[in-house]
Specification:
By secondary structure, this protein is of the alpha/beta class. A hairpin with a 6-residue loop joins strand 4 and strand 5. Bound molecules: cobalt (II) ion.
Length: 215
């Protein structure tokens, strides 16, 4: 695809939207009320809106290499705060994907320069689940499992965030979900994680309830 193609496609897209509803963009300009915050990988094959069949205005999206939730990431923190406090999203989804290059890099340690610090979070996921992962003899299955465990750990990182905990205690939302996109079949898989249970096990370490009480 060339850059010229993109503008041509955009013209066709605008025409198509206006064809179904002449006021489409006037309505779109009035504001957004998405119910879902999606945090996924930047990988060009994991086209968030497209694979979910989502329309403009429906999903608030944040993407980075290997769908990580890093506590010192100002960008991520701003996205989560805005989504939770202002948009009041009902769900936060962490969506990983099989064949993720970032996850693969964490399984094959080497000096990757600027990426070292970012990928360290993935290496930490490996360390936390080393017993389970090292017991998987098939390389591809181990790779797939690390993709899933990374989603679980990033979901846990979401519930450590103060904005999320405050909203959780006040309204019971947002609910946290862990998904994996299988690039080999196109299927979106819900890992069925029970985040209330996951948080229950680490509550004594990460619970910020005192902060909530001050409000
Ligand atoms: Co990826």
């Amino acid at each position: 695809m060339t850059l010229k193609d993109i503008f041509k496609h955009n013209e066709q897209w605008v025409a198509q939207k206006l064809n179904t509803d002449p006021q489409y963009f006037e309505k779109l300009a009035k504001g957004q009320h998405p119910q879902i915050l999606y945090i996924g990988c930047s990988d060009s094959r994991v086209t968030a809106e497209d694979l979910m069949g989502a329309q403009p205005g429906e999903i608030f999206i944040h993407r980075n290499v290997a769908n990580l939730v890093v506590s010192t990431d100002n960008n991520l923190n701003a996205v989560v705060q805005y989504a939770v406090e202002h948009l009041k999203v009902k769900h936060i989804v962490i969506c990983g994907h099989y064949e993720c290059g970032g996850v693969k890099a964490a399984l094959n340690p080497s000096d990757m320069g600027q990426l070292n610090s970012w990928l360290q979070t993935l290496r930490d996921v490996y360390r936390l689940h080393r017993t389970e992962l090292d017991a998987i003899s098939n390389d591809h299955k181990r790779f797939d499992r690390l993709v899933e465990l990374n989603v679980l750990e990033q979901c846990i990182n979401v519930i450590k965030i103060d904005h999320v905990q405050r909203a959780w205690y006040q309204t019971g939302f947002p609910k946290i979900h862990g998904w994996v996109f299988d690039v080999r079949t196109g299927k979106l898989i819900d890992l069925g994680l029970n985040m209330e249970k996951e948080f229950g096990e680490i509550r004594t370490i990460y619970d910020l309830k005192p902060l909530n009480k001050e409000k």
